[in-house]
UniProtKB/TrEMBL annotation:
Keyword Repressor: yes
Protein name stated in the entry: DeoR family transcriptional regulator
InterPro entries the UniProt entry points to: Carb_Metab_HTH_regulators (IPR050313), DeoR-like_C (IPR014036), DeoR_HTH (IPR001034), NagB/RpiA_transferase-like (IPR037171), Tscrpt_reg_HTH_DeoR_CS (IPR018356), WH-like_DNA-bd_sf (IPR036388), WH_DNA-bd_sf (IPR036390)
Listed SMART domains: DeoRC, HTH_DEOR
Keyword annotations: DNA-binding, Repressor, Transcription, Transcription regulation
GO molecular function: DNA binding; DNA-binding transcription factor activity
Record domain HTH deoR-type: where: 7-62
Length: 257
């Protein structure tokens, strides 16, 4: 088998591994396929050019980790609750504030409610949010460059964390796929988690906006814990177990009505 055939086989097996576990590090690629890290890096760069994966610092992730059907379902699911959450969040944001705004259906509801505020400066990796706010407000809006995730308009590249770390925020507004009974925050996408962690580190306050269906659920990738959050906004109080974790930190709960 010639070198090109070996590369094609290796890349096919690499994609199969990514489909199974969603994220793979350069170290794991090098170890699993007995190649150098330079070869592993070239493989993921080539696969990224073909739109098959997203390159991250130290590894790679499957290009679309959320199925389109799942995102469509999320847009419909608990839509009224998310609108109430968005309105509540907007009431906690001061005019002139600098914000990081996460992607996802709950944060899209937050963006719709933020039009009641004035002179905001917003950084988001969601093209949906950026396009909406740019059409209906005069806010200052910044987005990172990179590849667009077609399923939800999220923008990612290897340097997304560096882009986010160049800002300071009054508040980071985020949502997650689940909060388990230990108070751990989980999401479905390694790239999103790394980007959001960077924003949290650069923010004076962290606000978590989730509908109550997320309580008691565990996300694929751990983002952090409720102890990393200053404000929790939801349509209903969390479960008893999560309430214990909430009381363990300086976390203020706001119920959207």
């Amino acid at each position: 088998m010639d070198g090109e055939d070996k590369k094609s086989l290796r890349q096919r097996l690499l994609m199969e591994q990514l489909e199974a576990q969603r994220y793979i590090s350069l170290d794991e690629i090098a170890r699993r396929f007995s190649v150098t890290q330079q070869t592993a890096r070239r493989d993921i760069m080539e696969l990224e050019r073909h739109g098959k994966l997203r390159r991250l610092h130290g590894g790679a992730m499957i290009a679309n980790s959320i199925e389109p059907s799942e995102l469509r379902s999320r847009r419909i699911r608990n839509a009224q609750a998310k609108d109430r959450i968005g309105a509540c969040v907007a009431g906690l944001v001061e005019d002139g504030a600098s914000l990081f705004l996460d992607t996802g259906t709950t944060c899209e509801a937050v963006a719709r409610a933020l039009v009641s505020r004035r002179n905001l400066r917003v950084v988001s990796y969601s093209l949906r949010i950026a396009a909406y706010l740019s059409e209906v407000t005069d806010f200052t809006i910044a987005v990172p460059g990179g590849f667009v995730r077609q399923v939800d308009g999220g923008v990612f590249q290897e340097q997304s964390q560096s882009f986010i770390s160049g800002f300071k925020f009054d508040m980071a507004i985020l949502s997650v796929s689940g909060i388990d009974d230990e108070g751990d925050l989980g999401d479905d996408d390694q790239a999103e988690v790394e980007t959001v962690r960077s924003a949290m580190r650069r923010s004076r306050k962290v606000l978590l906006a989730v509908d109550s269906s997320k309580f008691g659920h565990r996300g694929l990738v751990r983002l952090g814990s409720l102890s990393d959050v200053d404000l929790l906004v939801s349509d209903a109080p969390p479960s008893t177990a999560i309430s214990v974790a909430t009381r363990a930190g300086n976390l203020a709960f706001h119920q959207a009505s």
